[in-house]
Write a structure and sequence with these properties.
The structure holds two protein chains of two kinds. Chain A is of the alpha/beta class. Chain A is 33% helix and 25% strand. In chain A, helix 6 links the parallel strand 7 and strand 8. In chain A, helix 4 packs across helix 5. Chain A starts with 10 loop residues before the first strand and ends in a 6-residue tail after the last helix. The mean pLDDT of chain A is 85. By secondary structure, chain B is an alpha/beta fold. Chain B folds into two domains: 105 residues, Rossmann fold, CATH 3.40.50.2300; 285 residues, ABC transporter involved in vitamin B12 uptake, BtuC. Chain B starts with a helix and ends with a helix. The chains are: A alpha/beta, B alpha/beta. At the A-B interface, helix 10, helix 11 and strand 18 of A face helix 1, helix 13 and helix 14 of B.
Chain lengths: 502, 443
Amino acid sequence: MTQLPGQPALLEMRGIRKSFPGVKALRGVDLTLQRGEVLALLGENGAGKSTLIKMLGGAHQPDDGTIRINGNEIEFSSPAVAIRAGIGVIYQEFNLIPELTPWENIFLGREAGIGFVRRRRERQLAADLFQQIGISIPLDVPCRTLSVAQQQVIEIAKSLSQDAQVMVMDEPSATITPQEVARLFAVIRQLKQRGIGIVYISHRLDEIFEIADRVLILRDGERVGESLIGDLTRQKMIEMMVGRDLQHEFPKHHHQPGPVRLSVQGLSRGMAVRDVSFQIRAGEVLGLTGLVGAGRTEVARLIFGADRADAGEIELDGRPLKIRQPGDAMQAGICLLTEDRKSQGLVLGASVRDNFSLPNLRQLSTCGVVNSFKERTVFAKYVDQLNIKIPSQQQLVRNLSGGNQQKVVLAKWLERHAEILIFDEPTRGIDVGARYEIYLLMNELARQGKAILMISSELPEVMGMSDRILVMHEGRITGEISDVSRVTQTQIMELSVASTGC
Amino acid sequence: MPKNMSLTSLLNHAFFRDYGMVFVLLLLGVLFSALTIRQQVPTTVGAGDQVAERIFARHGRDAGVLIVTRRTKQNLLFANATQARLEALGCTVLGNVSGAAPDARKAIESLLKQGKRIDAIAADDAAARWTVYDRFPEVGSSKCVIPTAYLWPDFLKVTNLLGVASQTAIYAMIAIGMTMVIITGGIDLSVGSLVALASVSSALVMRDYGGGASASLGMTIMGMLAGMAVCGCAGFFNGCLVAAFRLPSFIVTLGMMMMASGLAFRLSEGRSIPELPTTFFSLGQGKTLGVPNPILLMIVLYVIAHFVMSRMVFGRYLYAIGGNEEAARLSGVPVKRVLLAVYTICGLLAGLGGIVLTSQLSAGDPKFGQMYELEVIAAVVVGGTSLMGGQGKIFGTLIGAFIIAVIKNGMNLTNVDPFNQKIVLGAVLMISVLLDTLKRRVS
């Protein structure tokens, strides 16, 4: 760290307060960041991390408190001011225009020259930037053709081109593969060497230990702890975030598996899913892992009828199923908790209760008329049981935290009383506390003799919660691990990248 | 801050969020009432009774009264009512003149010649201003008794309000289907042309198969059903292309708009079809319990539509599809069937609107319904339904339709230039969308 005595910190936030109608999002938070430092910002969803970084990005203004850059107090009144002050925020949703090339995106809105774009010069500048970062990106293709990780690098390059001294990364690893995470970390180390300070947000504790120098933990809008990374244990970090003791991160109960409930034979669709066969027994949690794009989600969608299979048979309790659309699968007792809650799992602009009722309307109505009393009482039961934190059943889903949103999705499927539950990334973007509750729920469902297929990219989760693990690579199943207690992350990774000889 | 908070929470209250437009409508009503306050002279029966009683009070039972009115339908009612009331009170009605000033002069001359004494002249306000009375020293204009005027806004006259409502009823009916389609995230540009198609096809069935003016009730109903059926099919076709082939609804219904309009002109050979049975006209022109039928029909349809949208599974599906089609599909919503149904309903309602319009205007015509689609979309949007889909209320649309109608009517009553009216309506549309967006941003 290049901090000299007497020299002001790169970024200093003091006593930041912010209220929204009905919510105190931040109650006097302090944050300092030195040059060349990676500060991990930790906290459950709703702890105030997003609000804090939106202030740095100029999207929100604090009600109270000061922000200093290199000792100069600056009022972050708009995103433009933040950029000028040297702050680059890389949000989870990128701000790239899909049809433009990387370099056009980098210089968007700042094109040199009047009217005409100095194409050659800008293209060269972009190439230089990528070279400095140490990652090569094709320059002349539209951004939509690039991977998420590549788009992330473009966002970083864009911030660099704006002379950012502070870079804020909001869950940059959430949607990229482990290899890409490794590459991202190389970029981050490179940025550190240039004296750039980084605020890094992630729910994945392993990453924090790998990349962060210091950790700042928020809970309910307050700072509950700050420490050098070396002074903290994983357990301690989790306890500070949730504010209570958790026995284990993964509270897995193993049940004696019963008879085979779901059997999949030779399931195929194009290149995405090739000849996939497996079985799940009653009371069993089958973990399905592999790299992003390995075909895991596609398998789930085929079983659920969201896509049509080219070939393959699916049997439930020994009976063959004909599944043409999601309705057929639901009728048979299969449900799918989609990977992407916001675009596939929920109607964000609708109320919590409407979302809950959507797949259950037929049961909750007579002759096409919804029985709203029954609807209210049934949903109230789940609000209670799953500990969903909502002010009213009419609350819009959009305004809930990730964990509560996921619980609403769970509630709507639990009311279907499905026998086969497919959970695709059930804990993505969800805080530690809610995550724990979801694990407990999975235990309970398994105890009831249901069969669970859990798709996850997070190896600790897969290893911690599964009875058996399947690994996929390029549309095929490349390995099955029956003895979960003995397996290591490395072994799973090897299967994930295995060449299958074709 | 706390004060501010309570205001925000008040504005966020469900009632204001959904039906804040009611207040805009009331405000417009108050505004146009204030702008159109005028001296109103009562007419017809009530006025007759009033005048007769005043004459009786002044001159007693022996009074000889001449009634003088201009020749209009309303004045005739007034004159007859006055005469009947006077006679009931025991006064002598010397004559009942309906016409112009010379007629009044002749009548007075002949009465005087007969030696009759004229105690009072019951007249409507225009006839009382004639100068003929002063030519006869025995009479004089001071003997004229006219109904007393009172202050009342033109806007709030029952005839005006019922007129506005009957005209709006048709737009409002069609807007029900449009609201449903827009809530699913689509749009239906074909409704205006479907109005024309329904008008022409129902009129043709009544004329060519029912025998025109002498068509039986059965054939009249057949004609109406035919008009609805044609539009229902057109809507179903729209729905097929949108749901099964994933074509954008804008383009599909734009095509249907042209096709339906062309078809309407072809079928009618470009001419109006006035040979219709009179029983049919009672649909658009008749009244039940004193309320024009189109208004009653509109109220019934809105009550049903509100129930469907707020309490029925079908309504929930519409909102879910508009909010997030993929999430709805993955929750087991039969997306294709629902879309098919909603475009069909929209077509059927446009057809119904066309039939009511035909009945109101006593003829089938391929030129009916032009620009209705835009007017109807404007009503839906002003009523707070988001073009992005997933949000909107049926009664909001009703209010939206009436806001537009009231603004138009108010501008007519205050003699705003028709070109300026268009400018104002355009601005109203923009402002309402702007307000809606701002409101969403606040909450």
